Protein backbone atom coordinates (compact mmCIF):
# COMPACT_ATOMS: atom_id res chain seq x y z
CA UNK A 1 0.00 0.00 0.00
CA UNK A 2 2.81 2.43 0.88
CA UNK A 3 4.61 1.74 -2.39
CA UNK A 4 1.39 2.41 -4.32
CA UNK A 5 0.95 5.72 -2.50
CA UNK A 6 4.56 6.71 -3.20
CA UNK A 7 4.16 5.81 -6.87
CA UNK A 8 0.97 7.88 -7.07
CA UNK A 9 2.71 10.84 -5.42
CA UNK A 10 5.70 10.69 -7.74
CA UNK A 11 3.47 10.52 -10.81
CA UNK A 12 1.46 13.54 -9.63
CA UNK A 13 4.66 15.52 -8.95
CA UNK A 14 6.05 14.53 -12.36
CA UNK A 15 3.03 16.04 -14.09
CA UNK A 16 3.60 19.41 -12.39
CA UNK A 17 7.22 19.98 -13.44
CA UNK A 18 6.41 21.79 -16.68
CA UNK A 19 8.85 21.58 -19.57
CA UNK A 20 11.79 19.16 -19.53
CA UNK A 21 10.02 17.19 -16.84
CA UNK A 22 11.89 13.94 -17.60
CA UNK A 23 15.32 15.44 -17.00
CA UNK A 24 14.06 17.52 -14.07
CA UNK A 25 12.52 14.49 -12.39
CA UNK A 26 15.69 12.45 -12.75
CA UNK A 27 17.74 15.39 -11.49
CA UNK A 28 15.52 15.50 -8.40
CA UNK A 29 16.15 11.81 -7.75
CA UNK A 30 19.88 12.38 -8.20
CA UNK A 31 19.88 15.22 -5.65
CA UNK A 32 17.92 13.17 -3.12
CA UNK A 33 20.26 10.19 -3.36
CA UNK A 34 23.65 11.93 -3.66
CA UNK A 35 25.32 12.61 -0.32
CA UNK A 36 27.90 15.11 -1.59
CA UNK A 37 27.80 16.96 -4.91
CA UNK A 38 30.29 19.75 -5.57
CA UNK A 39 29.03 20.57 -9.05
CA UNK A 40 26.18 19.81 -11.42
CA UNK A 41 28.50 17.46 -13.24
CA UNK A 42 28.68 15.34 -10.07
CA UNK A 43 24.92 14.89 -10.19
CA UNK A 44 25.12 13.72 -13.79
CA UNK A 45 27.14 10.71 -12.56
CA UNK A 46 24.24 9.47 -10.45
CA UNK A 47 22.73 6.19 -11.72
CA UNK A 48 19.31 7.84 -11.42
CA UNK A 49 20.26 10.51 -13.97
CA UNK A 50 20.32 8.53 -17.20
CA UNK A 51 21.04 11.46 -19.51
CA UNK A 52 24.23 13.23 -20.48
CA UNK A 53 25.42 16.04 -18.23
CA UNK A 54 24.32 18.94 -20.54
CA UNK A 55 20.71 17.86 -19.91
CA UNK A 56 21.04 19.16 -16.36
CA UNK A 57 21.60 22.71 -17.57
CA UNK A 58 18.79 22.42 -20.11
CA UNK A 59 16.41 21.12 -17.46
CA UNK A 60 17.21 23.97 -15.07
CA UNK A 61 16.79 26.51 -17.84
CA UNK A 62 13.58 25.16 -19.37
CA UNK A 63 11.70 23.70 -16.40
CA UNK A 64 8.94 25.84 -14.95
CA UNK A 65 7.48 23.84 -12.03
CA UNK A 66 3.97 24.76 -10.94
CA UNK A 67 4.98 25.77 -7.45
CA UNK A 68 1.55 26.48 -6.02
CA UNK A 69 0.12 23.16 -7.22
CA UNK A 70 3.19 21.31 -5.97
CA UNK A 71 2.66 22.93 -2.56
CA UNK A 72 -0.95 21.74 -2.54
CA UNK A 73 0.25 18.23 -3.43
CA UNK A 74 2.68 18.28 -0.50
CA UNK A 75 -0.04 19.47 1.89
CA UNK A 76 -2.25 16.56 0.84
CA UNK A 77 0.40 14.20 2.21
CA UNK A 78 0.06 15.73 5.69
CA UNK A 79 -2.29 14.11 8.22
CA UNK A 80 -5.68 15.80 8.45
CA UNK A 81 -5.97 15.42 12.22
CA UNK A 82 -4.15 17.61 14.70
CA UNK A 83 -2.55 21.00 14.24
CA UNK A 84 0.43 21.09 11.85
CA UNK A 85 3.74 22.50 13.05
CA UNK A 86 5.46 24.81 10.56
CA UNK A 87 8.98 26.25 10.71
CA UNK A 88 10.19 29.26 8.76
CA UNK A 89 13.73 30.47 8.19
CA UNK A 90 15.96 32.65 6.03
CA UNK A 91 19.12 30.98 4.71
CA UNK A 92 22.05 32.57 2.90
CA UNK A 93 23.83 30.90 0.00
CA UNK A 94 27.31 32.40 -0.04
CA UNK A 95 28.63 33.04 -3.57
CA UNK A 96 31.33 35.72 -3.17
CA UNK A 97 33.33 34.62 -6.22
CA UNK A 98 30.41 34.17 -8.63
CA UNK A 99 30.69 37.62 -10.17
CA UNK A 100 28.40 36.73 -13.10
CA UNK A 101 25.62 35.40 -10.86
CA UNK A 102 22.60 37.66 -11.15
CA UNK A 103 20.76 39.18 -8.19
CA UNK A 104 23.52 38.79 -5.62
CA UNK A 105 22.78 40.56 -2.35
CA UNK A 106 24.48 41.20 0.99
CA UNK A 107 23.51 38.35 3.32
CA UNK A 108 24.13 37.64 6.99
CA UNK A 109 26.63 34.89 7.60
CA UNK A 110 28.43 33.60 10.67
CA UNK A 111 31.93 35.07 10.69
CA UNK A 112 34.52 32.29 10.51
CA UNK A 113 37.42 34.65 11.25
CA UNK A 114 37.44 36.61 14.50
CA UNK A 115 36.95 40.32 13.87
CA UNK A 116 35.35 39.93 10.44
CA UNK A 117 31.90 41.31 9.77
CA UNK A 118 29.21 38.56 9.74
CA UNK A 119 28.17 39.19 6.14
CA UNK A 120 28.68 37.56 2.77
CA UNK A 121 27.72 38.15 -0.87
CA UNK A 122 25.33 35.67 -2.42
CA UNK A 123 21.63 34.92 -2.49
CA UNK A 124 19.05 34.60 0.27
CA UNK A 125 16.35 31.95 0.39
CA UNK A 126 13.17 31.84 2.43
CA UNK A 127 11.79 28.45 3.47
CA UNK A 128 8.65 27.36 5.25
CA UNK A 129 8.44 23.67 6.07
CA UNK A 130 6.17 21.20 7.81
CA UNK A 131 7.76 19.48 10.81
CA UNK A 132 6.02 16.10 11.19
CA UNK A 133 7.59 15.04 14.52
CA UNK A 134 8.83 16.78 17.64
CA UNK A 135 12.08 14.79 17.48
CA UNK A 136 14.52 14.28 14.64
CA UNK A 137 15.60 16.64 11.86
CA UNK A 138 13.34 15.61 8.98
CA UNK A 139 11.00 18.25 7.53
CA UNK A 140 8.99 18.72 4.34
CA UNK A 141 9.61 22.11 2.64
CA UNK A 142 6.28 23.48 1.42
CA UNK A 143 7.79 26.60 -0.14
CA UNK A 144 11.46 27.33 -0.76
CA UNK A 145 12.06 30.48 -2.79
CA UNK A 146 14.76 33.01 -3.42
CA UNK A 147 14.53 36.45 -1.85
CA UNK A 148 15.20 38.81 -4.73
CA UNK A 149 17.02 42.13 -4.42
CA UNK A 150 13.70 44.03 -4.34
CA UNK A 151 12.22 41.87 -1.55
CA UNK A 152 13.04 41.43 2.12
CA UNK A 153 12.88 38.34 4.38
CA UNK A 154 9.93 39.64 6.43
CA UNK A 155 7.65 40.29 3.45
CA UNK A 156 8.69 37.03 1.76
CA UNK A 157 8.01 34.94 4.85
CA UNK A 158 4.66 36.66 5.39
CA UNK A 159 3.57 35.91 1.83
CA UNK A 160 4.70 32.28 2.07
CA UNK A 161 2.86 31.72 5.37
CA UNK A 162 -0.27 33.24 3.85
CA UNK A 163 -0.07 30.96 0.81
CA UNK A 164 0.44 27.82 2.90
CA UNK A 165 -2.38 28.59 5.35
CA UNK A 166 -4.89 28.87 2.48
CA UNK A 167 -4.79 25.11 1.97
CA UNK A 168 -4.19 23.73 5.47
CA UNK A 169 -7.10 21.81 7.01
CA UNK A 170 -6.54 23.34 10.47
CA UNK A 171 -4.88 26.33 12.10
CA UNK A 172 -1.11 25.71 12.28
CA UNK A 173 1.52 26.60 14.85
CA UNK A 174 4.52 28.28 13.22
CA UNK A 175 7.95 28.81 14.78
CA UNK A 176 10.48 31.42 13.67
CA UNK A 177 14.01 32.51 14.50
CA UNK A 178 14.96 35.83 16.12
CA UNK A 179 15.15 37.56 12.72
CA UNK A 180 11.35 37.51 12.72
CA UNK A 181 10.95 38.56 16.36
CA UNK A 182 10.07 42.13 15.44
CA UNK A 183 7.00 44.35 15.20
CA UNK A 184 6.81 44.41 11.36
CA UNK A 185 6.52 40.62 11.13
CA UNK A 186 3.97 40.40 13.94
CA UNK A 187 1.89 43.20 12.42
CA UNK A 188 1.96 41.83 8.88
CA UNK A 189 0.98 38.31 9.96
CA UNK A 190 -1.77 39.41 12.37
CA UNK A 191 -4.59 38.50 9.96
CA UNK A 192 -3.12 35.16 8.88
CA UNK A 193 -4.91 32.19 10.52
CA UNK A 194 -1.80 30.82 12.26
CA UNK A 195 -0.36 30.94 15.77
CA UNK A 196 3.18 32.32 15.72
CA UNK A 197 5.99 31.56 18.15
CA UNK A 198 9.19 33.58 17.65
CA UNK A 199 12.53 33.77 19.41
CA UNK A 200 13.40 37.26 20.68
CA UNK A 201 16.82 38.84 20.44
CA UNK A 202 18.62 39.39 23.72
CA UNK A 203 18.90 43.16 23.06
CA UNK A 204 15.23 43.64 22.18
CA UNK A 205 13.25 46.09 24.31
CA UNK A 206 9.63 45.26 25.11
CA UNK A 207 6.88 47.59 26.26
CA UNK A 208 6.11 45.44 29.29
CA UNK A 209 8.39 43.56 31.63
CA UNK A 210 8.99 39.90 30.71
CA UNK A 211 8.09 37.17 33.21
CA UNK A 212 10.65 35.69 35.57
CA UNK A 213 13.26 33.54 33.81
CA UNK A 214 12.19 29.89 33.91
CA UNK A 215 15.67 28.47 33.45
CA UNK A 216 15.02 27.22 29.91
CA UNK A 217 15.70 28.87 26.57
CA UNK A 218 17.00 32.40 26.22
CA UNK A 219 17.12 34.46 29.45
CA UNK A 220 14.61 37.23 30.06
CA UNK A 221 15.44 40.55 28.46
CA UNK A 222 17.11 42.94 30.89
CA UNK A 223 16.13 46.60 30.93
Mean pLDDT: 88
SSE string: HHHHHEEEEHEHE
User: CATH architecture of the largest domain, please?
Assistant: Alpha-Beta Complex
**SSE class:** alpha/beta
Q: Note the gap between the termini.
A: 58 Å
Unreliable runs, pLDDT <50, ≥5 residues? Answer: none
Number of strands: 6
Strand content: 15-25%
Cα-based radius of gyration, to the nearest Å:
20 Å
Q: Provide the CATH top-level class of the largest domain.
A: Alpha Beta
Number of helices: 7
Quickly count the domains: 2
Helix fraction by DSSP (H/I, runs of at least 4):
25-40%
- Tell the overall outline: globular
> CATH-wise, what's the superfamily of the largest domain?
Transposase Inhibitor Protein From Tn5, Chain A, domain 1
CATH fold node name of the largest domain: Transposase Inhibitor Protein From Tn5, Chain A, domain 1
Give a short account of the largest sheet.
6 strands, mixed
Compact description:
The chain is of the alpha/beta class and 223 residues long. It has helices spanning 2-14, 21-33, 40-44, 54-62, 67-76, 153-165, 183-188, and strands at 85-94, 105-108, 119-130, 140-147, 173-176, 195-198. It folds into 2 domains: 1-65, no CATH class; 67-223, Transposase Inhibitor Protein From Tn5, Chain A, domain 1 (Alpha-Beta Complex).
Amino acid sequence: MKSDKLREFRQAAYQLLGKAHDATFELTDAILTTRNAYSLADLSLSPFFRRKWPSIYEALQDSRPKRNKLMQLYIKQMPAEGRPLLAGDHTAWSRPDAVTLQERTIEHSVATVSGNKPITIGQGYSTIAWVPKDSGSWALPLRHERITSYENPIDKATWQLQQVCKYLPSRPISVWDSEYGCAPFISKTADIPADILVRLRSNLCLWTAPPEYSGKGRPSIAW
